[in-house]
């Protein structure tokens, strides 16, 4: 129950409130009744009684939904608000006709590339009398008065008009997301109306993204579901807006399919460890179920860096720009040298959405463009790995690789080129500053001359259980990278550990560690030219190996075999079997390196009538 009181003596009234409440509760069957009081103090007695009563009622209405408040005084602001409400509802048509409603645009920026992914269309009512009215005020009122569909279609038409204009002028088209309200779905098919407008202006579907607020989707039946599906099947991206703001976000995710979630800015309003952990969990979950992620309301650099570091793909917020008129957007676009994403570029970067950077594995994303390597993303663990190898920063390592500064850089470059060409997942090992490094690479996507590669990097020198050779001489370590293959073989234990593998089929040799005989055979079949295989087997024959080594004047044995290189061609490699002693135990170091005389031997070989396979 609610009561409006229009009363002169506030003090006597205050004393009366509990009395009145008690009396009402005393009535038959009324003990559970929630009694609320709206009070309008009267200072001038010229006020008509109806006005006073209606103000008291207005005050009472304000606390209707608040369970623990029972008294509310009328304030002037309440009256203003009521007036504005009436004004909005009464003048909406006029506002549309006279173009008092403007469409503003707010940029959405991609974290890894800094590209302008899209803009969100947001309406502003700029009233000749009342000044700027925020959509936070007029949108709910238009929803209540069933006029919101008119607004939303007006906004869409404005977007399409600008899109067409851009195209006609030969300028870049920027993808735009627009908001749909719940009420939009219950006045005939909103999909069909959107299509009709879009077609009229010949705007491609992939230039328009539909935003639907999650609270809209609660407990709604088939109509909403089917309309959303129609949008998606036709090729529109559909985004869930304000994720996390309602009380059944997760259920909504379960019941509908979306392309992207916009995480509600409320999570950023208090930038605490707790809220950060919640955001991380949302990002991780979104990636698991294949959704792109956008963080709303990013205002500071600190927030932007955090959002990027956890692998959230897109950012919207004052940090990059407030909602602004189209002309201002164009100006800002020139000023900031923004690059607008094409649908192809969007798809290319979209390949990153599946990568979960919140693991304890060292992960990085690099972009390889015409042989040039650039880090787009590195997580903390990856940076740690780089520091452990004595490097200063990911950027520094990229510079070295790009400059082809030495054999390691060259090897890494040809390794990455190989990953790009083969689209395969590959592993290479190398040593730098006395550390054994393992680099794993996985191909993700290509766009024109650019390729995305996911990297994982481990320093297995410091991982005790995997450490193959604590005491290998520093000098030998640094010599290793001259080789195509270096393995440390423990004949007694029948194991071989690759210290350096810079060749195709390396995956196998990285996984397989025991069974030397099998490994030799596998190596031969995948890597050695058929014409050299017999000699290769004899060279690796275990029973005579010890004797051959003893008899050789160098204390080691070598042989030349045509071996598959990184370019998948056979090269003459010198293979050597070198006995070494580590901690008083006998090992064999198996090495293969390109022969310095490769070309001459090649010529010699072809001229002798034998064909060289490629
Ligand atoms: P929304 O769709 O979630 O839009 C984002 C709101 O957050 C916008 O408020 C924007 O100005 C604000 N915002 C963006 N970045 C920041 C930031 O860094 N910090 C803070 N504090 N705020 C930021 P706006 O424009 O007032 O819109 C409010 C809501 O009104 C929108 O929320 C949307 O739900 C609704 N809306 C706006 N225009 C339309 C429309 O044309 N149609 C419909 N149906 N709804 C609209
Ligand atoms: Mg929105
Ligand atoms: Mg939002």
Describe the structure.
This protein has 22 helices and 22 strands. The protein has an 8-stranded mixed barrel with strand order 4-5-7-8-9-10-11-12, surrounded by 4 helices. The C terminus is likely disordered. Helices cover 40% and strands 26% of the residues. The chain is α/β, with parallel strands linked by helices and 614 residues long. The structure holds ligand C2E and magnesium ion (2 copies). The site of one magnesium ion has 4 residues, from strand 9.
Summarize the biggest pleated sheet: 8 strands, mixed, barrel
Terminal CA distance:
90 Å
List the strand order in the largest sheet: 4-5-7-8-9-10-11-12
Category from helices, strands and their pairing: alpha/beta
Give the uncertain stretches in residue-range form.
600-614
Q: Tell me the helix content.
A: 40-55%
Give the overall shape: elongated
SS elements, strand count: 22
Please tally the helical runs, counting DSSP H or I stretches of 4 or more residues. 22
Percent of residues in β-strands = 25-35%
User: Can you give the mean pLDDT?
Assistant: 87
Round the Cα radius of gyration to an integer and report it. 36 Å
Ligand inventory: ligand C2E, magnesium ion
């Amino acid at each position: 129950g609610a009561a409006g009181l229009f009363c002169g003596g506030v003090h006597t009234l205050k004393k009366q409130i509990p009395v009145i409440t008690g009396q009402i509760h005393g009535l038959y069957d009324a003990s559970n009744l929630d009694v609320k009081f709206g009070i309008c103090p009267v200072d001038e007695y010229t006020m008509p009684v109806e006005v006073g009563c209606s103000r008291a009622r207005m005050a009472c209405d304000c606390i209707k939904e608040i369970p623990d408040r029972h008294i509310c005084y009328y304030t002037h602001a309440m009256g203003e608000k009521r007036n504005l409400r009436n004004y909005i509802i009464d003048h909406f048509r006029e506002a549309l006709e006279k173009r008092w409603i403007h469409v503003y645009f707010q940029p959405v920026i991609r974290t890894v590339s800094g590209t302008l992914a899209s803009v969100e269309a947001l309406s502003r009512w700029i009233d000749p009398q009342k000044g700027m009215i925020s959509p936070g005020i007029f949108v709910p009122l238009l929803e209540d008065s069933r006029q919101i569909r008119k607004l939303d279609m007006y906004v869409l038409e404005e977007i399409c008009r600008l899109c067409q204009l851009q195209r006609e002028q030969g300028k870049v088209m920027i993808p735009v997301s627009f908001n749909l309200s719940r009420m939009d779905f219950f006045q005939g098919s909103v999909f069909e109306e959107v299509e009709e407008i879009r077609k009229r202006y010949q705007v491609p579907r992939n230039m328009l993204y539909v935003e639907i607020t999650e609270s809209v989707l609660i407990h709604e039946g088939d109509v909403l579901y089917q309309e959303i599906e129609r949008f998606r099947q036709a090729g529109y991206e559909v985004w869930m807006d304000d994720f996390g703001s309602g009380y059944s976000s997760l259920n909504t995710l379960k019941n509908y399919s979306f392309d992207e979630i916009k995480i509600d800015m409320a999570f950023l309003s208090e930038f605490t460890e707790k809220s950060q952990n919640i955001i991380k969990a949302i990002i991780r979950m979104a990636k698991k179920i294949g959704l792109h992620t956008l963080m709303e309301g990013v205002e500071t650099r600190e927030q932007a860096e955090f959002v990027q570091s956890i692998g959230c793909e897109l950012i919207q917020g004052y940090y990059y720009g407030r909602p602004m008129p189209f002309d201002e957007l164009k100006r800002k676009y020139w000023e900031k040298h923004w690059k607008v994403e094409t649908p192809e570029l969007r798809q290319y970067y979209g390949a990153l959405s599946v990568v979960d950077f919140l693991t304890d594995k060292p992960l990085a994303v690099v972009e390889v463009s015409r042989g040039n390597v650039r880090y787009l993303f590195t997580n903390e663990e990856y940076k740690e790995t780089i520091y452990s190898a004595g490097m200063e920063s990911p950027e520094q390592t990229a510079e070295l690789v790009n400059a082809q500064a030495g054999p390691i850089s060259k090897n890494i470059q040809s390794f990455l080129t190989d990953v790009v060409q083969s689209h395969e997942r590959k592993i290479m090992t190398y040593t730098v500053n006395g550390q054994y490094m393992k680099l794993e690479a996985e191909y993700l996507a290509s766009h024109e001359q650019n390729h995305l590669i996911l990297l994982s990097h481990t320093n297995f020198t410091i991982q005790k259980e995997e450490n193959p050779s604590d005491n290998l001489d520093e000098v030998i370590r640094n010599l290793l990278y001259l080789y195509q293959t270096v393995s440390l073989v423990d004949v007694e234990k029948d194991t071989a550990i690759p210290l350096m593998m810079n060749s195709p089929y390396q995956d196998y040799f990285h996984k397989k560690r025991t069974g030397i005989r099998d490994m030799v055979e596998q190596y031969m079949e995948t890597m050695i030219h058929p014409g050299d295989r017999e000699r290769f087997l004899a060279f690796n024959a275990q029973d005579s190996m010890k004797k051959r080594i003893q008899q050789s004047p160098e204390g080691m044995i070598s042989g030349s075999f045509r071996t598959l290189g990184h370019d998948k061609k056979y090269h003459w490699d010198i293979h050597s079997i070198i006995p070494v002693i580590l901690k008083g135990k006998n090992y064999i170091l198996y090495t293969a390196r390109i022969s310095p005389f490769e070309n001459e031997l090649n010529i010699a070989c072809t001229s002798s009538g034998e064909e060289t396979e490629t």
